[in-house]
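Blackboard transcription, Thursday session:
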Amino acid sequence: MLEVRKLTQRFGGITALEDVSFTARKGLITGVIGPNGAGKTTLFNVITGIYSQTSGSVHLDNADISRIPAEMLAARGLVRTFQNIELFGNMTVLENVMLGLHSRSSSGILSCMLKMPWHVKEEKYIRQQASEWLDFSGITDLSAQKAANLPFGKGRLLEIARAMAVHPSILLMDEPAAGLNNSETHELAVLIRKIRDKGVTVVMVEHDMELVMDICDRILVLNLGRMLAEGTPREIQENPAVVAAYLGEG
Amino acid sequence: MKRFLAAACFTVLTVLSATICIAAPGTIKIGALFSVTGPPSFLGEPERNTAKMEVDEINAKGGINGKKIELIVYDTTGDATKAVQAANRLIKEDKVVAIIGPSTTGESMAVLPVAEKEQIPLISCAAGSKITDPVKKWVFKTAQNDGLAVAKIYEYLNKKKISKIAIITVSDGFGSSGREQLKVNAAKFGIQIVEDSTFGPKDTDMTAQLTKIRGSQAQAIICWGTNPGPAMIAKNVKQLGIKLPLFMSHGVSSKKFIELAGDAADGIILPSGRVIVSDVLPSSDKQKKSLIAFVKDYQKHYKTEGDHFGGHAWDAVMLLKNAIEKGGETPSQIRDQLEKTQNIAGIGGIFNFSPTDHAGLSKDAFVLVQIKDKDWALVK
Amino acid sequence: MELSDQIAQYLVSGLSTGAIYALIGLGFAIIYNSTEIINFAQGELVMLGGMFALFFINFLHLPLPLAVLSAVASTTAAGVLFERLTIRPLKAATPLSLIIITIGGSILIRGIAMLVWGKDTHAIPAFSGTEPILIGTATILPQHLWIFALTLLAIAMNKLFFNYTITGKAMRACAVNKRAAGLVGIDVRKMVLYSFAISASLGSLAGIIVAPLTMTSYDVGIMLGLKGFCAAIIGGLSAGAGTVLGGLLLGVLESLGAGLISSGYKDAIAFIILLLILFIRPQGLFGKAETERV
Amino acid sequence: MRFLNSEILKFILLALFILILPHVAHEGYLLNVLVFVGIHSILALALNLLLGYAGQISLGHAGFFGLGAYISGILTATYSLNPWIAMLIAASVVTLLSFAVGFPVLKLKGHYLAMATLGLGVIIYIVFNEAVDYTGGPSGLSGIPNLSIGTFSFDTDIRNYYLIWTFALIAIALSLNLVHSRIGRALRAIHDSEVAARVMGVNARLMKVQIFALSAGLSAIAGSLYAHTMTFVSPASFGFNFSVELVTMVIIGGLASIYGSLLGAALLTVLPELLRAFQDYDIIVYGLLLIIMTMFMPGGLAKGFPQAASYLRTRFGKRSSPDA
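(Written on the board underneath:)
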């Protein structure tokens, strides 16, 4: 369960987030929507420790993670994907996923250099787990390709496989459907549901309303850095303030 | 795999092709290591030019004992690593019988163990006294020890009853060796160094150091360096209005210094080899003949004045020629004959080698000169 | 002599060397601000300026103003040529590849200069005499005044150009966001070329005006470039007062370090201070902090 | 598993090649060059771990190399310590020192990092020059003993060749293991996208500092080997120029390529020997090479050979058929 309490983020004179509070319940898909500049990506950056917030706090399973740096969160089961997919382009697809298991392995520089037996065992485990997650995302056939050479849609799938390899309890996805065509979006929806069925809490920022309304259990609406509404897809669709905000933008 | 093999083959081929070399029969091969480029190029370039010029001349006159000399010059860029590599190449690849150079003390110290191990005579063109002190069997040198230049200045100071001095030296091999000698010899002459400062070879302003010297008790300033630093110092001294007598080292005894320092050079006193004052030497001077020949030749070939750095190489070639003529052309014959060198007048001075002295010069190798009206004048 | 008099001279000496660093640092800052490229060959452009001036004054015997103009023109041509031949054809320009290409360029230019002009150091006559000027108890040379004047002029011109001309504004836009600048119709490649031309001409002007003091040789660019780069970094790579203050500070620290602490370690002192500044305020003493975008 | 086998095979072939080379190659001088190729290979390898894998530039590696050489040299020449112990001390001191300095330095990025490492290198170089009482100043430190085992002293080229290449092979093997492990992946991930790597749980900062320290420590070992082979050290060998030369070796050989480091080191060590014919022109060739390689062969020789080959093949193919 992820809980955000009274989160405020300012950059110089600009307020990107103000007093945002919400809860993403365990095992559900929570959607975060809002017009451009609403502060959705900033929200993700604060939660994942890339920015440190001006005030407020973030809690993961009742533990305060507000001041924990980004690299420590994976081990706690929190992981994210990026809007413009951030793959490790010079590594193969398989290696990308193997990196997802970094936080679940521990061999140090020396034992890696000396190929200590526990390291060899660990490496074997990493490789086997990684292939499983490739399989899960349906991109096993691409495993030896360089990640930079993947088409955008496949890259998205790889990013999700990599994130899942971390064994997250909560997965934040920043616009997973951006840049995908219809059939790819459909594939994605199936995959996200599969992830939820594994018991992973999903929070996603998304512009594709159809997708959001289709798969989200709860929806949070941001506008100009403030909370506008929260509720089920049906409640949100009927909320006049939300409609006004979107119409106002369009 | 294929890629790797291809790459490996490529590397081997380049290495091999580099080592193929055709030797002309009936020649005597002499190697030379000069830092023709890099920071000490002010030494290496005139040295290479001079050595080439002299070897051409010897060959034009029929060579040594009827055999031509082949001079193989490698550039060491002032780097000890490159100097050692080049020395190995000269000895093992080019099979030279003797090596002239390197130009700097640092490189000479690096190459010295190679020469000793491979038993090839080496005539260094660097000034550092530790090159031949203690004496090494295969190593000689032609450049005057810095200590001799220091002694020449200190003698003059004694005569003028100056006892407190400030020294400012460049932080490279030349300067640090000079600094060491200035300090070591001070007590012997009853001289006290009241201010000891340094400057970088590429520094562009020394007013800070000179301001400190101005504030000290010093009665004279001695600067030890090679162009362009000392010229900068002369200008800065003038800018700060310091009236103390200024002494320089033999590192700047060329017209270039006067050109760079301009008016600020006037009145500066420095020890120098006889090269720059060859025309005003008394005709009884034993070196005069070779000095004038050298200066004229260099002028003719390279359109600039020959300096005593080139002279080091000139002397080295000359000493080798002499040793080969009299002793023979194997490395050990050359070495033995070099050690017997007596009373030979070169550019740097009159050489007298012995089993206990491989530097061969006395302090008479230097004369004190003063800069007057953009020219040199002997200080009596 | 009183210590206070000595310190006055240290400060004056430091300021006058600092002005040289500042002027060279400005060249770095201008290229950086319009292209985000650190041009490691900037020091070599400074050297070229001095060398060309020498050539025009001593060999072609042109009058001073004409020689200066020709030298600036020649160096600018060299800078433009360098950009056209190496930076522009580069497809995937990463900061690393740009650092390496410009280092390669600096070696190349140095090598060519060595072949053309030889390895000797050369002196250039001062613009208006060498009679020292007394400031209190400290002295400077008339040439220093030229440097101060040119530095001020450079900053002023720079401000005017980047704030009040279309081209200047376009160049600033490129620095902020190349893609966006391209989208609104700015020819980004042309702007990169312009900034190379501007910084080459500024660099050469610096080289010409400092040459009577520092003298010039093919390898004078390394140290001058390095110090200018330091000045720019201390100043937060701002193309204005920041870099100038950075240069002056560096000069004064060096001079005080040489006078009061140790002349041998003065460059080390300067670099230690540079490192401390980078550690504590990586945006430079006078720069604004920037947040990294994801 | 196939991948593992081909890796091991490649390594064994290299080891055999190195073993046999002195018997095939010209005696004497070439061997001496190969000794330096070995030292430079270790250095290029060390820098490649940092520059090629982690993507962090260092323009001060000559300084660490020099520190290794000087610490080892001073301890043995002045304080008559056993060379092996001196080497161990040199490597440990440099590793610890760079680890401590690494934290503030590697916080910096791009040209700031370049400037900071350059500054470090310059400071170390100045210390070599100025601490005359310990280092002997600009004219250097002589009288450093050769390494030896019992009464067997590494005092000839052939002995040094095998000594240094043993070290180089060990370094290559360890580096290969490292880059194919979770650490190697994490390093490359940092290179490609530091933010994404951190989100995946890679402690980028610590990882960078660790690899910086490892790289510096390895360079120090190379320095120590250098000092005991040359038996002499002087500051001029450890200046900014050499740092640039090392970066060039890595770039020319190929970023993030272990065997590429070897190629780069070999080429840049042999190149000056070839260029001796050009004398004064070599500096120009050197600058040109740096520019051309970065522009047209960004993958370096390791990747450039196959690239160039396929380019030529398509070019050649095109020419044989009429232009489309």
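Lecturer's comment: The longest strand of chain C covers residues 133-135.
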